[in-house]
Amino acid sequence: MIFIVVKFTVRPERSEEWLDLVQDFTEATRQEPGNIFYEWSRSVDEPHQFVLVEAFAGPEAGEAHVNSEHFKTAMAWMPDVIARTPEIINVEVPGQGWSAMAELSPRES
């Protein structure tokens, strides 16, 4: 599995609309056959930063993603909205998705 985390710092005047702007890109990516998950969060420390956590089944799925029309479309408009170059971690890890955390479970009520 290819596991990717990207931090996008958005221009302050555009940050409130960021999730709307990436909605079509997000939905199209989630429909890709090799996509395992694609999830956005907003940083609790930096109000204009959004964190994308994504995974793809393998290198072929990652390559298909970056060669897709929706990826190319997003890369064309994003430079006008971001405040700095995104930071990325991209690694290959074993498995095909999330696992349960062994150290913590809900208490029985």
From TrEMBL:
Keywords: Monooxygenase, Oxidoreductase
Signal peptide: none
ABM domain ranges (all copies): 2-90
One of the record's GO molecular function terms: monooxygenase activity
PANTHER family: ABM DOMAIN-CONTAINING PROTEIN, QUINOL MONOOXYGENASE YGIN-RELATED
Protein name from the UniProt record: Antibiotic biosynthesis monooxygenase
Organism name: Streptomyces cinnamoneus
